[in-house]
Amino acid sequence: MTTMILSGKRQVVLPAELCRQVSLAPGARVRVELAPNGDGILVRSDSAGERKPAAVLFDRIARRGKPLAVEDLQGLAVAKRQGKP
């Protein structure tokens, strides 16, 4: 759990890692509501069904190994279409 400070304008900054986990990018719309038990505030994405920015999607992919060049990726795609492993 992260503790944040409420500014004079009643603003808080959401931690970047938390935003990545729930696919919130800068400029995303959120809904803020009172928790059902009245004990806190819920912040939820208001972009149901919207496309997510590529940067958010790529951050969720585990990166392993050396990056591939575009030409290598194209070669893999051709090989797959031809039925080669």
UniProtKB/TrEMBL annotation:
Record's SUPFAM superfamilies? Answer: AbrB/MazE/MraZ-like
Coiled-coil region: none
Alphabetically sorted, this entry's keywords are: DNA-binding
Organism superkingdom: Bacteria
Q: Write down the InterPro entries for this protein, in alphabetical order.
A: SpoVT-AbrB_dom, SpoVT-AbrB_sf
Molecular function as annotated in GO: DNA binding
Which segments constitute the SpoVT-AbrB domain? 1-48
Is DNA-binding one of the keywords UniProt gives this record?
yes
**What's the protein called, per UniProt?**
SpoVT-AbrB domain-containing protein
Q: Which organism is it from?
A: Sulfuritalea hydrogenivorans sk43H
